[in-house]
């Protein structure tokens, strides 16, 4: 749902889809980096709000996990988005109450209502909850470690093409089916409780007491977990007043099965997430701990299941505020707030000592140049000029068409500094920065001159509209291979002053790399120009991009830099 929300937002941010005739003129106003980023953030918030019926949790998820650059305007936009989601959901749920939608729309906005339980807790309960948080942190760290190994194997299999992806999916599906159907045979039948609130054994698709090969008046506890939708299985585990419903062995086998199936299912070519399997596994071991500690704790095993789910979410996702609010909105149990907060913080702290969060690990695995919110300690020992590499390609203010075309063909760079040189100026002078997409639009317009003369900006803008330079959608936009020029045109000149960003962000070459990294991230930059400190040198030393701040790049340049040594030295100092 998060991915779907982000995809819809991205489609709106690129002006719709011409292929499917879903375009509107007013959408073109969003065709820029900032608005597209904001829309995708709001899309993520909408996805969480719709999936868990948690509008505030959706906003906090976007803040904690999705957005790198958060500001007050984005807060109310995300809040407005999730408010609309909540209203639409509520309307559809009311419409579906009449039974017109089949199994869709059952239940209200609160999915696992625990508000009827009165949670009173004492010191022994807090010790049990601290233990639960520690277990959640250990299981979460182990889960992320194993998932990292499995996803690396899956990526090798998936790279072999569609047949390998389909075969892997079929194998995992068969294993899941065998576990779901085979394991309940290991469980013994239990007599229906006389004080059962709902019908026992269950008639229909969902319920707490599945019959599964048992005689009348008996139910199979493990089948009640496996032969339900995940939502109903979580509801069964969260249910209070059912301390004796599940055998210890059934819960243990179910936990091992869900833990392992969650590991092998994530990463195959199926739109499945991690949230629900993690909540399910966490609720199971929470209930196990609650049952084992029943003698010293007065809390219901159903509430332990909720805290177990929170601890496992904290241990794998490493989110705190958003998970806390999502769980509260799911269960409507405000009295559990202090305990959920405590267990989340403990599990996150324990798991952080082993490895990173699951999403951070996947970003690293995909090789995406994601910048952390803080600068690494070893960056304090370097300056901006140290990490600038490669031959710098600059353009003159009035440049030959052939030189621009050659530069665009032989490099994949996105930004090029523009430098005015004599005779246009007395000394070389940095004009600004021009980006690839704008250069391609200018070249396509073929406003070339035979002599290198500076033109007025208004003359250029008469030929182009502002929307000609708007950001293209993914996979769209001009490419240099689409443009063709005659030999005569290649010898002509084009004026770049009108399309250059004349106020790019710059730093002096002697600036600390740690400060440059913070500046780069906080401002959400794509290019940061490095200028010389001393006069009588070329006006630009190089360009810093996201790649230049990545640890692997810096370690390649300076193999002697060991972040662990610097960290311990700075701690000792």
From TrEMBL:
Start and end residues of each CBS domain: 500-560
Transmembrane in keyword set: yes
Membrane topology, as annotated: Multi-pass membrane protein
Subcellular location: Membrane
Organism of derivation: Triticum aestivum
Name of the protein described by the UniProt record: Chloride channel protein
UniProt keywords, alphabetically: CBS domain, Chloride, Chloride channel, Ion channel, Ion transport, Membrane, Repeat, Transmembrane, Transmembrane helix, Transport, Voltage-gated channel
Family, per entry: Belongs to the chloride channel (TC 2.A.49) family.
Entries under Pfam families matching the protein: CBS, Voltage_CLC
MF terms (GO), sorted A to Z: transmembrane transporter activity; voltage-gated chloride channel activity
Residue ranges crossing the lipid bilayer per the database entry: 39-63, 69-89, 101-121, 127-146, 166-187, 251-282
GO CC list: chloride channel complex; plant-type vacuole membrane
Superkingdom as given in the UniProt entry: Eukaryota
Family matches, as SMART domains: CBS
UniProt xrefs under PANTHER family: CHLORIDE CHANNEL PROTEIN, CHLORIDE CHANNEL PROTEIN CLC FAMILY MEMBER
């Amino acid at each position: 749902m998060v991915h779907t929300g982000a995809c819809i937002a991205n489609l709106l941010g690129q002006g719709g889809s011409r292929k499917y005739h879903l375009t509107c003129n007013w959408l073109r106003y969003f065709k820029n980096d900032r608005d597209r980023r904001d829309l995708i953030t709001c899309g993520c918030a909408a996805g969480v709000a719709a999936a868990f019926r948690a509008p505030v949790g959706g906003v906090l998820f976007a803040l904690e996990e999705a957005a790198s650059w958060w500001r007050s305007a984005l807060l109310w936009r995300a809040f407005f988005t999730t408010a609309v989601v909540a209203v639409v959901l509520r309307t559809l749920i009311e419409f579906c109450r009449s039974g017109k939608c089949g199994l869709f729309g059952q239940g209200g906005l609160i999915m696992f209502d625990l508000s009827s339980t009165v949670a009173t807790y004492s010191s022994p309960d807090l010790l049990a909850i601290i233990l639960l948080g520690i277990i959640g942190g250990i299981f979460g760290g182990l889960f992320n470690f194993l998932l990292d190994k499995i996803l690396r194997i899956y990526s090798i299999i998936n790279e072999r093409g569609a047949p390998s992806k389909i075969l892997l999916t079929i194998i995992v599906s068969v294993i899941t089916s065998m576990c779901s159907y085979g394991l309940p045979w290991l469980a013994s039948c239990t007599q229906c409780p006389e004080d059962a609130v709902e019908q026992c054994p269950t008639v229909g698709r969902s319920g707490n007491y599945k019959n599964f090969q048992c005689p009348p008046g008996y139910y199979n506890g493990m089948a009640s977990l496996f032969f339900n939708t995940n939502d109903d299985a979580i509801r069964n585990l969260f249910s209070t007043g059912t301390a004796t419903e599940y055998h210890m062995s059934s819960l243990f086998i179910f936990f091992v099965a869900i833990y392992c199936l969650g590991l092998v299912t994530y990463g195959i070519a199926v739109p499945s997430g991690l949230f629900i399997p993690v909540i399910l596994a966490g609720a199971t071991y929470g209930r196990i701990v609650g049952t084992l500690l029943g003698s010293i704790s007065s809390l219901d095993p159903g509430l332990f299941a909720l805290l177990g789910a929170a601890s496992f979410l904290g241990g794998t996702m490493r989110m705190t505020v958003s998970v806390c609010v999502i769980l509260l909105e799911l269960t409507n149990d405000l009295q559990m707030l202090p305990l959920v907060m405590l267990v989340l913080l403990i599990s996150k702290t324990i798991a952080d000592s082993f490895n990173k969060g699951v999403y951070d690990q996947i970003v690293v695995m995909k090789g995406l140049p994601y910048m952390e919110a803080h600068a690494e300690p070893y960056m304090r020992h370097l300056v901006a000029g140290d990490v600038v590499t490669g031959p710098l390609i600059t353009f003159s203010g009035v440049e030959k068409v052939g030189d621009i075309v050659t530069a665009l063909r032989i490099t994949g760079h996105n930004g090029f500094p523009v430098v005015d040189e004599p005779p246009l100026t007395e000394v070389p002078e940095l004009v600004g920065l021009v980006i690839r997409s704008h250069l391609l639009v200018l070249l396509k317009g073929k406003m070339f001159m035979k002599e290198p003369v500076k033109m007025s900006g208004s003359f250029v803008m008469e030929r182009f509209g502002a929307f000609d330079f708007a950001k293209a959608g993914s996979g769209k936009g001009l490419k240099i291979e689409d443009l063709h020029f005659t030999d005569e045109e290649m010898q002509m000149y084009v004026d770049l002053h009108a399309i250059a960003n004349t106020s790019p962000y710059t730093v002096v070459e002697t600036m600390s790399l740690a400060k440059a990294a913070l500046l780069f991230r906080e401002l959400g930059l794509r290019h940061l120009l490095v200028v010389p400190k001393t006069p009588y040198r070329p006006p630009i030393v190089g360009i810093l991009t996201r790649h230049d701040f990545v640890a692997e790049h810096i370690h390649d340049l300076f193999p002697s830099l060991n972040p662990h040594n610097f960290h311990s030295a700075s701690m000792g100092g």
